[in-house]
Amino acid sequence: MIRKQIEKLLNGAAKIEDMPEKFSVSFSAMPGLCDFQSNSAFALAKELKSNPFDLANKIVSDLQGNDMFEFSVARPAFINVKLTDKGISHLAKEIANGKLPQPGEGKSLYIDYGGPNIGKAMHIGHMRSFNIGEAFKRLYKKLGYNVISDIFLGDWGMPMGLIMAELEFEGTLDEYISGERELSLAVMNEAYPKGSKRKAEDETFKARAEELTLSFQKKKEPYYGFWKRLRDVSVSEIKRVCTLINVDFDLWNGESSATDYVETVLDIFKFKNLATLSDGALIVEVAEEGEQIPIPKKSPDEVQRYENPMPPLILQKSNGGDMYATADIATIYMRNLNYKPDIIHYFTDVRQKQRFVQIFRACKKAGISFEGQELWHTGFGTINGKDGKALKTRDGGNMQLLDLLNMLYEKAEERLISNGTNFDSDLKRKIGNAALKFADLSNSVEKDYSFDIDRMLSFEGKTGPYIQYTACRIKSILAKAGRFKDNFNFLQEHRAVVLELNKLWSSYMTSFTEKSLNSLCAALFNTASAFSSFYNSCHILSEEDEKKKSAHLTLLKLVLSSLEEGCEILGIEVPEKM
């Protein structure tokens, strides 16, 4: 907001001086010196073959006497801008009354995140998908998009066939099918890893698992009916976990939802002569002429090598079984049939990046994704322990999502007890979730990061609980203050907080553009820190000057609403007390 106003003033001065209107403004790299800066004089002087310092001074000379901004020039040609008291007040009012840019106005966006496989316990990778996808769903709504969210369950592949094959191997499948034995997620969690291990060791077992998978995919009974029961039990547990971590979906579809469209999709590729047979499998070529795919480096100093070309996309196995990619393409077909979204955005493990490039290209070649539709994929990194290795449970097993959540809630309880805070199960859940979400989303989305539970649960430093604690402190002060009239006659002592609020406002669009929430997290922390410094240096409730006191309280009210809004985007709940 304020940067655009400064840019308009600078370009207005450039017009007066008969110069090109090419000035841009950024936040200051030296906050102690100025609030905003423009480096445009360097490039412009080069273009005009003039002295950059003289050019900058010409621009600034036309802007003296502005009651909101103080303009100055620092060598060699930096244009520095500092807010006056009136400018600070104006900016605060804009933040209080402003509306975020609406790039999504009139556009629909279908967001696909979550993606757990049914029949298996969710692991910590699903937590990243839930956290990132949920935050972007909320951000997109804030930016004007009409959003449809879908968990898109992995419910139509080999895991279900492995569970059935393992239960059959153990001689209990018929009893589970008939209902003599009670089906539970615990049964599936035990059967799946056994079946997965047995498949790797026994070709006959593997073939039977593939046969059973094909049977329920072809809707043959009793396997299709049993598959539906497996799905229902799994979905019930997934919904319970989603409620715990403040995640919800508009749709609970899965690969199975698109199964009726698979034949239609295959016919489209065949009709357009895009599909060919290769060793009995149906494939489509998606490589583009001349492209090179970089092979990940093992070290930064290693020479970059390339893989060429992009491998073909397999649409159907040689035995007629569906591929995951086929289900994904059929799903895009189904979504366009039912919703015609302008954008479809997927969030998955970064290792699936190439797969989605293949799928998107295939959909565009076949016309399944219509002209003008945007297909986005955001890949996220993995979570490791403090030692850089995969997280493990106390007994050394692989860390599951519920293990992680329970560990966080236990640690949150310990922290609350040590602080002498009265709490209930809901408060420790909110604090545990805030610690988890903030730590997760503070990192650049594609990067791996280390999970340090003690650090992320701290009530000090760059953590979710610190943001919550700051908001709770402001709530307490405002409750004690009682009713007051908003007063935006802000002073220099309010400057640092207002400027951080402005950066917080800007971080929404930065996060949108970069497709990563770390900018928003950093801005929330910096705003909370700036408030803490203000709080420690100013008398608020004891201030005798009523006008000054009301200005202080107006600032607190603005900080609280801004922190709550940012936390709401991240899926963090702000409690009343901590």
Largest sheet: 4 strands, antiparallel
What is the mean pLDDT? 93
What would the principal axes of the Cα set say about the shape?
Answer: globular
Structural class: alpha/beta
Give, in spatial order, the strands making up the sheet with the most strands. 1-2-4-3
Radius of gyration: 28 Å
Provide the helix percentage.
Answer: 40-55%
Structural features, described:
By secondary structure, the chain is α/β, with parallel strands linked by helices. Helix content is 52%, strand content 11%. It has 20 helices and 15 strands. The protein has helices at residues 2-16, 40-48, 52-61, 85-97, 124-142, 158-169, 173-178, 185-201, 203-217, 223-244, 262-271, 324-338, 353-366, 401-418, 425-441, 453-456, 464-481, 495-514, 518-537, 546-570; strands spanning 26-27, 36-38, 69-74, 78-83, 108-112, 146-150, 275-278, 281-284, 293-295, 305-307, 313-316, 343-349, 374-380, 383-384, 449-450. The strands form five sheets. A four-stranded antiparallel beta sheet has the order 1-2-4-3. The chain is globular. The model has no long low-confidence stretch (mean pLDDT 93).
